[in-house]
Write a sequence for this structure.
């Protein structure tokens, strides 16, 4: 995998970001500070935050494409550094910002415009993004709603990690210690959409990201996004984007050529 190194003296304590691209699947394994064993698989469009001491390997038949980025602490203020320390380790999530960032890294690398200074700059931006989005500074309450930003982030992460599975409103309600009916009400108040529509739209956005990866077959895109059949995937995708998955991929291909 391509590795963006930063100054070893300025690394965040033991953290790295793993972002596979294309069909690459990465296996990360190791122990946390309490000696508990962890093992996760990471594939596009997911990214993962793991300790630097973890071992990484691509699974059999998977080409090693992607990025492993060591994250710097020097650009973070005290509050952001504390927030970064609260980022869940051994966690993976679907983060469109990170995917777009590594796409830009790839373009710079292919154009031979990528150097150590560029790597440091990207690592700085990514460090701040992760601290603000996933750290403990996201716990302030939203006005006029019982749901906090931390609760909404917890729901978002759960949906992204289980996007290929059936997701019930009851499961989401448990995450924030509410009844299903109360959760559905306050979630719509906070986001403007009922939970089931939110999940559907996240599946569509997830599928859009994968459709930009030319090597992932359409049938696999639908399955990874949690659609039970290819026809259901096509119908729902067309309903919310105005085009079929195949047409979207062709348009993206032609637009990028």
């Amino acid at each position: 995998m391509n590795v963006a190194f930063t100054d070893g003296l300025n690394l965040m304590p033991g953290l790295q970001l793993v972002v596979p691209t294309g069909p690459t699947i990465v296996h990360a394994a190791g122990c946390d500070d309490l000696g508990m064993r962890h093992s996760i698989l990471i594939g596009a469009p997911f990214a993962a935050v793991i300790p630097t001491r973890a071992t990484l390997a691509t699974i059999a038949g998977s080409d090693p494409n992607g990025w492993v980025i060591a994250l710097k602490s020097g650009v973070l203020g005290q509050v952001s550094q504390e927030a970064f320390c609260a980022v869940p380790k051994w966690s993976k999530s679907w983060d469109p910002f990170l995917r777009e960032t590594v796409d830009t890294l790839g373009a710079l690398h292919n154009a031979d415009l990528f150097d150590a200074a560029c790597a440091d700059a990207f690592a700085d931006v990514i460090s701040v993004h992760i601290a603000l989005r996933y750290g403990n500074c996201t716990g302030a309450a939203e006005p006029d709603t019982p749901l906090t930003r931390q609760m909404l982030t917890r729901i978002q992460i759960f949906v992204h990690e289980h996007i290929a599975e059936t997701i019930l409103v009851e499961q989401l309600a448990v995450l924030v210690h509410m009844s299903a009916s109360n959760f559905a009400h306050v979630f719509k108040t906070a986001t403007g959409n009922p939970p089931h529509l939110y999940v559907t739209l996240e599946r569509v956005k997830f599928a859009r990201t994968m459709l930009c990866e030319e090597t992932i077959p359409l049938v696999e895109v639908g399955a990874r996004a949690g659609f039970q059949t290819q026809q259901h995937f096509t119908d729902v995708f067309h309903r919310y984007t105005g085009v079929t998955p195949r047409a979207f991929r062709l348009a993206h291909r032609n637009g990028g050529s």
